[in-house]
Design a protein that fits this description.
This protein is 36% helix and 24% strand.
Length: 234
């Protein structure tokens, strides 16, 4: 799956203007980039759910071209953005750098914070989970337990909701493209999740979890959900 993800985003970077950040990361509806107000809603949601503060050390997993990272950096002390695809990583470094941002071209499942570095107090990943298999999702939860502070809060945003799948594939044309895609791969859109799968992973890795529907104003609310994790306190 990793090679497929890299190729998908490599094509999106190379086939459009390098500064077309919304297109590069798929923030589109029927091929048209969403209004900037939608990005503002996403940022407000992340900041609110994580209760971001100036002392926070934040990890952005799957930061892509830094579209969200640079905005979140204004709330906190430091942000580390991890991005798997080198082309997106390069765009982030070129266009969305800031004094308190560090971008790293790496897979979160292989990432180590390094001796002497502070553990992250807040973590977020947005529309990333569909790129992970169910087994990799389990590995991610374990990794999150290893690299975060005891009082960490984690926001997992924009998760494909298996219970709302057909709200997205809501026309014969969309369903036809989807079913045709299934002939050549397991699911062309990636992994769809049930909220209880996240709740089970949370219990398995010593987190409390709250999975919630997205606000109706958000353009993805009819087929995605969000989840907040906090570490269980003994």
């Amino acid at each position: 799956m990793e090679d497929k993800i890299k190729q998908y985003y490599r094509d999106r970077v190379e086939n459009k203007d390098r500064s077309d950040f919304l297109w590069q990361v798929g923030k589109t509806v029927d091929g048209v980039s969403v209004p900037d107000e939608q990005i503002d809603l996403i940022i407000e949601n992340i900041a609110s759910k994580l209760q971001l503060g100036i002392k926070d050390i934040v990890l952005d997993i799957g930061c892509a071209n830094g579209l969200l990272t640079k905005k979140i950096a204004g709330y906190v002390t430091k942000v580390t953005g991890l991005e798997l695809t080198s082309e997106l990583y390069e765009v982030a470094c070129e266009y969305n750098s800031h004094g308190n941002i560090k971008y790293i071209n790496a897979n979160i499942l292989d990432y180590e914070i390094g001796e002497g570095n502070d553990k992250f107090t807040k973590v977020y990943l947005y529309e990333v989970m569909q790129h992970l298999s169910y087994q990799e999702a389990d590995m991610l939860f374990k990794k999150l337990g290893d690299i975060t502070a005891d009082d960490v809060s984690i926001f997992i945003g924009g998760v494909l909701d298996v219970e709302k799948k057909w709200n997205f594939f809501d026309t014969f044309e969309r369903r036809s493209r989807y079913f045709t895609g299934l002939l050549s791969e397991s699911d062309p859109f990636g992994s769809w999740y049930h909220k209880d799968y996240f709740n089970c992973l949370a219990l398995r890795h010593n987190f409390d979890s709250e999975c919630v529907s997205q606000k109706n104003r958000l353009y993805t609310s009819h087929y995605r959900f969000d989840c907040v994790l906090t570490r269980k306190q003994n």
